[in-house]
Design goal:
The protein is 27% helix and 28% strand. It is α/β, with parallel strands linked by helices and 414 residues long. The protein binds zinc ion.
């Protein structure tokens, strides 16, 4: 199947691509730094005076940085080669001058990114590099200056050169006879997802390790071909996740998340979502909105999919696919029921971007709430994870057994 861009990822951005390149050694790091290893960011300082704000990051070696601007919300994006961020947990959370907050992390293999949310429109008015006081490290300074809305908009729109998709989907292998299951650990890299109140446990890490267990369980059965949208701490856009599932001609797509809710230790339990234009309730709609912001968090503008199902065949396919998605969601809830604490309405629907492939049955599992200590304890427990993964693999077996029975295909299953 040709790899058709199914979603347009538009990054409306890039001010006159300010590129600063440094000769890798002039101010470069001490002897410890090997040529191939990523630069280490050991400290960040944000200073402001009047109309200017300076963002200073201390790096173990010089790197090439590229900046761009994005609107709604107003952001400055700094693209870097891979950088290992060794920063305190609270880095980026407090407002200073023109910077409301900033995030950082791996954006794609070999590429890191810093996304600053602005308090008001601002331009990058300078980018410099200088050795730090010890001479062993390099300080990269990015200076922001206040600007007018119109000027900011023009700079953000005029030069779309930084348009780059996120990590390439991992799904280009040829199909074997077994059903293909795409497991989709939510978030990743620069997008941490939800976090526990302590801030030390992140959704992106938790769902990746859960997804890896699920993959192993399903792979060990020998009955399925398993693909992951990501298998490391890297950002993958929502569009790329869907595109990868379609390119792999996946027979099932399982997205794994763990939610968080403010002000409610008592809100607990697991929920299975399927895609729908209409949300089953206001909470589901809010959750879908939150999850759909993942691209904006990473500084990628994803345009709504052009799958407004104009075509009657597509609509029929979508209807059939939604039926399969519902069927699988029902089986999942049935299996989870005996081993997990379920949300009071465990199968819900909402307009999740990641569940919009019209021809791949798709569900999104919210394993529980990181905001609930009881859920968090379960999510971290090996025993609980093993039980959940087993329940899911039983649901998968039953789902495919029923599908193959219906088609009259030779049993792939025991
Ligand atoms: Zn999530």
């Amino acid at each position: 199947m040709p790899f058709i861009p199914y979603i347009r990822i538009i990054s409306m951005c890039l001010m006159a691509s300010l590129v600063a390149a440094w000769s890798g050694h002039a101010h470069a790091a001490g002897e410890g730094a090997k040529a191939g290893s990523p630069a280490i960011a050991a400290a960040v300082a944000v200073e402001s005076d009047g109309a200017k704000t300076r963002f200073k990051v201390t790096l173990s070696k010089a790197v090439t940085a590229q900046v761009s601007l994005m609107e709604r919300p107003d952001r400055v994006i700094i693209d870097l080669p891979e950088v290992a961020f060794h920063l305190p947990q609270e880095a980026g959370r407090s407002r200073e001058g023109l910077i409301a907050s900033y995030r950082y992390g791996l954006f794609a293999p070999g590429r890191s990114r810093v996304v600053m949310e602005l308090t008001q429109p601002a331009m990058v008015s300078g980018m410099t590099t200088a050795p730090d006081a010890t001479g062993a490290a390099t300080i990269l300074t990015i200076e922001l200056s206040r600007t007018e809305r119109e000027e900011f908009r023009r700079a953000a729109v005029e030069n779309p050169a930084a348009k780059e998709a996120s990590a390439a989907p991992l799904a280009q292998e040829t199909k074997d006879a077994r059903p293909v299951i795409m497991i989709d650990p939510g978030h990743g890299g620069i997008d941490p997802g939800a976090n526990a109140s302590s801030g030390s446990i992140l959704e992106k890490d938790l769902v990746l390790s859960f997804a890896q267990r699920l993959r192993k369980k399903l792979e060990d059965s020998g009955r399925y071909k398993i693909i992951m949208t990501r298998d490391q701490d890297v950002f993958v856009s929502l569009g790329d996740r869907v595109r990868a599932a379609r390119a792999a001609q996946a027979d099932l797509f399982i997205s794994v998340h763990a939610d968080s809710i403010s002000g409610g230790q008592e809100v607990r339990g697991l929920t299975v979502y399927t895609g729908s234009e209409r949300a089953s309730d206001a909470d589901s709609a809010r959750l879908a909105d939150r999850e759909n912001k993942a691209d904006a968090v990473a500084g990628v503008e994803s345009v709504d999919m052009p799958d407004d199902v104009s075509d009657i065949l597509m609509e029929l396919t979508l209807r059939e696919t939604r039926g399969f998605s519902h069927n699988f969601a029902g089986r999942l809830v049935g299996e989870f029921d005996s081993v997990a604490r379920l949300n009071k309405n465990p199968h819900r629907q909402a307009r999740f971007q990641v569940l919009r492939a019209h021809d791949v049955p798709s569900v999104l599992v919210e394993l529980g709430y990181l905001s609930s200590q009881k859920d968090l304890d379960l999510l971290m427990s090996e025993e609980w994870r093993a039980k959940m993964v087993s329940a899911m693999s039983v649901a998968v077996d039953r789902f495919f057994a029923a599908r193959f029975a219906r088609r009259g295909t030779a049993a792939v299953l025991p």
